[in-house]
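F.,

This is the one I mentioned.
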């Protein structure tokens, strides 16, 4: 089953390694050391500039009770729940370091708890954590609070506690329902648990439920993808993220635990994607872009129709705050003029905050040129079009227009001296079109793609 709007030959042609553009410049081009004083200056300046619109907070909770072998996230495997209070104390110290840089109470517009497995933490500890963070804040009238949950351990009490704190969105990592696929990726998750977690959230009053699904996993077949999505359609989640599995055992060592011969070949993986996409579109989901689908009633679909979409390290969002602060091990912050990422090891993160220091180990200070081309990429990924600025014409002529010639010839976009607009077909190739504006990749040539997964 292939949806009629999909050109298989074009998908094969543009299935190249390209970034997902949750940032620009992308993380591989960041500096290994960003001076703390420089970062704090960037943070304070942006806090003042964006104060009225509020800020986004991302809190990384890294603990998982078991290892999912496909996972490339930063996580800590443990069954020792005594780790919870120690980590919460470190988060509080880090938060206090940032509060000291603010001359007034921050306005929180968006809060997301990610991981790892945030529902590793007990309902009581999640309540203590969120209460600790928000007690020194003003909540924006249009706030949005969300959390990632594991269907196996997200209890009714978890959901009720978070709902009472203002959470209205929940995202469940479903990945695949096939028992053999679950076995090989070490994520045994009966569909009954997914159903119970979803129905509990809806009965309490959650307004949006998202499922994460992955294609390209070991032992996946077209039949297993069809069964998985068929079961998922029984619950009709409001949003679905349909991600490509990125096999990068050189950075995610757990991926070495299964045989690469179990992975679908490129043609089969492409078929998995086209099959899943077709099923979702036929069921009424709208393709938001870059792996995301949503039902027409969902706020994500409405924001796309009204050109209100924004994109940051949490993916697509309707909250364009202009400032994202990440707390916790490996968390990333974005203050538009700069990025910063915390240390990826718990030991170094704990050591830094206990010494009264930020745990930043990597970052980037954007130039005026970076910001201009970042805006082009954001405009295309969120709104499907962008307008060119005359002062950027020399760089557009040298790097961008030559790289847009082939996509334009293939009907993915329409380009003139004023701007670019995606065609309906081009909306399925957003990452590829955005990559034409990636000056970092353009200047490094073919070697620049080695750090990124393929578009499909």
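My design for it:
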């Amino acid at each position: 089953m292939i949806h009629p709007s999909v050109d298989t030959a074009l998908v094969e042609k543009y299935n190249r390694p390209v970034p997902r553009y949750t940032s620009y410049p992308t993380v591989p081009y960041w500096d290994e050391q960003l001076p703390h004083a420089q970062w704090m200056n960037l943070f304070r300046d942006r806090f003042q500039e964006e104060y009225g619109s509020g800020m986004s907070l991302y809190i990384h909770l890294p603990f998982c009770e078991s290892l999912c072998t496909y996972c490339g996230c930063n996580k800590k495997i443990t069954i020792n729940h005594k780790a919870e209070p120690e980590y919460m104390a470190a988060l509080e110290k880090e938060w206090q370091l940032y509060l000291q840089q603010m001359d007034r109470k921050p306005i929180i517009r968006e809060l997301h708890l990610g991981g790892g497995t945030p529902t590793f933490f007990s309902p009581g500890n999640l309540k203590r954590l969120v209460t600790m963070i928000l007690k020194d804040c003003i909540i924006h009238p249009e706030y949005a609070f969300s959390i990632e949950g594991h269907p196996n351990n997200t209890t009714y009490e978890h959901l009720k506690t978070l709902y009472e704190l203002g959470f209205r969105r929940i995202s469940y990592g479903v990945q695949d329902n096939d028992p053999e696929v679950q076995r090989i990726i070490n994520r045994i998750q009966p569909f009954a648990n997914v159903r119970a977690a979803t129905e509990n959230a809806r009965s309490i009053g959650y307004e949006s439920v998202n499922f994460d699904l992955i294609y390209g996993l070991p032992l996946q077949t077209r039949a297993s993808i069809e069964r998985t999505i068929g079961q998922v359609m029984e619950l009709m989640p409001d949003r679905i993220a349909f991600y490509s599995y990125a096999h990068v055992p050189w950075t995610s060592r757990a991926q070495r635990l299964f045989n690469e011969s179990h992975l679908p070949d490129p043609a089969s993986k492409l078929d998995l994607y086209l099959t899943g996409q077709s099923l979702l579109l036929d069921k009424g989901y709208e393709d938001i872009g870059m792996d995301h689908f949503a039902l027409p009633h969902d706020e994500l679909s409405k924001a796309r129709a009204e050109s209100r979409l924004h994109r940051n390290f949490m993916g697509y969002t309707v909250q364009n705050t202009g400032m994202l602060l990440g707390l916790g091990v490996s968390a990333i912050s974005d203050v538009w003029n700069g990025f910063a990422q915390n240390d990826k090891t718990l030991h170094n993160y704990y050591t830094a905050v206990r010494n009264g220091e930020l745990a930043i180990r990597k970052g980037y200070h954007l130039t005026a040129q970076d910001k201009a081309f970042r805006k082009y990429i954001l405009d295309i990924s969120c709104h499907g079009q962008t307008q060119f600025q005359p002062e950027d014409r020399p760089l557009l002529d040298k790097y961008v227009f030559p790289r847009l010639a082939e996509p334009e010839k293939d009907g993915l976009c329409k380009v003139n001296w004023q701007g670019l607009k995606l065609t309906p077909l081009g909306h399925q190739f957003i990452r590829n079109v955005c990559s034409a504006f990636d000056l970092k990749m353009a200047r490094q040539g073919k070697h620049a793609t080695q750090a990124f997964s393929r578009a499909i």
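The chain is about 35% helix and 20% strand.

Talk soon.
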